Structures are given as structure tokens and as C-alpha cells.
């Protein structure tokens, strides 16, 4: 007998960002002349830097010559890229072996795919609010989700309690959507809890490049003991502007084991079967991200987006709208000013000001009454949007 995976019936009809895209498309159709400012999905607006583009061209040329042509690469990624990722971590005193680094087609895929190496129906701990892809992927696998609450009382940085024992724990820091970042002490508490209670942490560090506070950890492996219990998943999407190119990486230290079985080995096996690696051209481009010349360009790109989030944060604060994030993160998380629900506020901003944001409740029930704006738009659009906010709230 054949049947569908019935867990799909437990999912909401549409994934959050698709739902928003559909609403915006309808609004555009009904208001063809209205300018829409996109501050919803965290998609980058600046093009890929010159040096990375040059390296893409070079890689394409390699493919055109018999001597340098590449067919299948190894599923885990080319060593040249893994060596550079290794050095990137070494600069933060995290020592990795290149066999612990797996190149992927972006963080989102691996955050869900990683579930292949765990049993179905396992216990999973997910903070709320958080990036909705974790929840959906775990529903699809039939896992039992226990939410840990992030709210004003804990600065949107929930901690683990007895209900989280023996579970797979998803942590996103800097957090999407709130912009909150765990400091080393609170992350140490999470790591110690995981090691004491047979948990595995999936640490999503997709926004690490936006951290400016020198004391905050970029990687969970900066924390003692993390190599025994954590997997880290990162992305070139927001740092190198690869949202449309697709490249990221997953780090599984050899020490992480469940019932004495190495998760690194299981993931290696899984990838060898289900993945044929990221294209050579993409990996050459991602590799260029680490060159000295590119890093200088990347610093300016990060500064550009952070100037936007600062402008959003400062404008909202001036208007007495309570907000969070925006400093070590590209996201600003605001409390709707007049107790509007998240979706009411979405409609108000879209219909009234032509601004698209993301309803907080889309990130979980604790996000109800909140709203997310991103610093990833152009500076000009961010200024325009903030002028609209000022005009609207000063009336
Ligand atoms: C977001 O807006 O939360 C992210 O851009 C979505 C993603 O990275 O898939």
C-alpha cells in the first residue's frame, strides 16, 4: 500500500513567506500604481561583490577547458573552500578538521535535512518565536515539539528546562526574528544542559556576521563542551548575498555522538546518498568570500544593511514604538503600537503606507502582537519607509 506522509496535513496551508508573497501580489494587482517597499523576507538587495563575480567567471572558464573542467565533486565540498572555512573559525579560536565541514546549498535545506540522521517521533525543543522552517520540517517528520518561550521577560532568549531533556534543541543566534543574541554565559548554560541531559543542539548561525559586540559568540563552538553536543549550520546567503546562488555549510564535530554513534559519520553517509554537492562555480565564488579583498567589500555591505536597521530602530524609538534587535542583527522586532494583532498591523502597513513587513505571529504564537522589519532593503527605500512611519504616527 502507498499513502502520503500524513504529517503534511498538520502543516498550515502555506509557508509564512509564500503567504505574504501571495497577499502582496494581490495588493499589487489591485493597486498597480502604488509603490511597495519590501521589508518582509530577509532577502538581500545589494548585488554580489565584484571579486566574487570575477571568481564565478573564472570558474566558468575552468569548466570550458579540458584541463580544468570539473565533473562530480565530492559531496562534502571542495577542500579549498573547507580549508578557508576552517581558517575563518580558527580566527575565533575554534579548531576544526575539514572532515567536520560539509558544504551545502544553504542553511534552510540542512536545517530540515539534518532530521534524516535522527529517528522519527523524537522530542524537539524549539524557541518561540523563531524561523518557521524548523517547526515545519519537524512536523513533516512527525516529531514532538516542545516550545520554549521567548518574551520581554527574558529578552527573547529562552533557556532550557526539564521538559527539554533528551531532545533535539534548535537555537538561532542572532535570532531570527527578534535579533536577540545569546551571550557566552547563557550559551554555556545551554551547552552544559545538553551534555548533562542527552540533547543535541542544532545551532543556526546564519546571521553571525551581523554581530558587532565583541563579547558575543559567533559560533557555538566558542563554548567549552559544545563539540560534544552541537551541530552548527551557517549560510553565505546574508553575508555574501547568495540568497539566489545557494551555498552554506554544516559543521558536525567528530565528537558528537548519540548512543555512541558518530553523527558526523551518519551525515557523511546521508550526504553521499542524497546529495551530489554544490556546483564548482558556486563553491569557487563562496571561496572568494574569504579573500582579504572580498572581506573588505563584505564589511561595507554589512555596514550598509546595519545603517538601515539602525535607522529603523532609531525612527521607531523616536516614535515611542517599542523595539528590539537591529544592533547585532539585520532585523528589528517591534511591538505593534496600538495593540494591533500581527496580521492587522501587516494590513495597516501595506494598505496605509505601502510597506511590507513580516507579522510576528508567523514566527510562533509568542510573536503575536509583534512585527518584523528588515534592514536588507535599499537605503533609499528604508529612508522612504521611515518617513512614512513618521508622517503616519505624528498625525
Ligand atoms: C527570513 O526572512 O526570515 C529569511 O530570509 C528566510 C530564509 O532565510 O529562508
Unreliable sequence segments: none
- Major beta sheet, strand line-up: 2-8-7-6-5-3-4
Structural class: alpha/beta
Based on the coordinates given, report the CATH architecture of the largest domain.
Answer: 3-Layer(aba) Sandwich
Q: What's the domain count? A: 2
Beta-strand proportion: 5-15%
Q: Taking all residues together, what is the mean pLDDT? A: 97
Distance between the termini: 64 Å
Q: What is the chain-wise order of helices and strands?
A: HEHHEHEHEEHEEEEEHHHEEHEEEH
Care to count the β-strands? 15
Rounded Rg:
21 Å
Bin the helical content: 25-40%
User: What name is given to the CATH topology of the largest domain?
Assistant: Aspartate Aminotransferase, domain 2
What bound compounds does this protein have?
Answer: D-malate
Task: Describe the model.
The chain is built from 11 helices and 15 strands. The protein has helices at 16-30, 50-64, 79-90, 107-113, 132-140, 184-196, 263-274, 280-288, 292-318, 342-353, 379-394, and strands at residues 37-38, 101-104, 123-128, 144-149, 168-172, 200-204, 230-235, 248-251, 257-258, 261-262, 323-325, 331-335, 355-356, 358-359, 370-374. The protein is globular. Helix 2 packs antiparallel against helix 8 (280-288), helix 3 packs parallel to helix 8 and helix 4 runs parallel beside helix 5 (132-140). It has 395 residues and is an alpha/beta fold. The N and C termini lie far apart (64 Å). The strands form 4 sheets. The protein has a 7-stranded mixed beta sheet with strand order 2-8-7-6-5-3-4, with helices on both faces. Strands 11-12-15-14 form a 4-stranded antiparallel beta sheet. Strands 1-13 form a two-stranded parallel sheet. The chain has 2 domains: 12-41 and 293-394, Alpha-Beta Complex (Aspartate Aminotransferase, domain 1); 50-290, Type I PLP-dependent aspartate aminotransferase-like (Major domain) (Aspartate Aminotransferase, domain 2, 3-Layer(aba) Sandwich). The site of D-malate (MLT) has 5 residues, from loops.
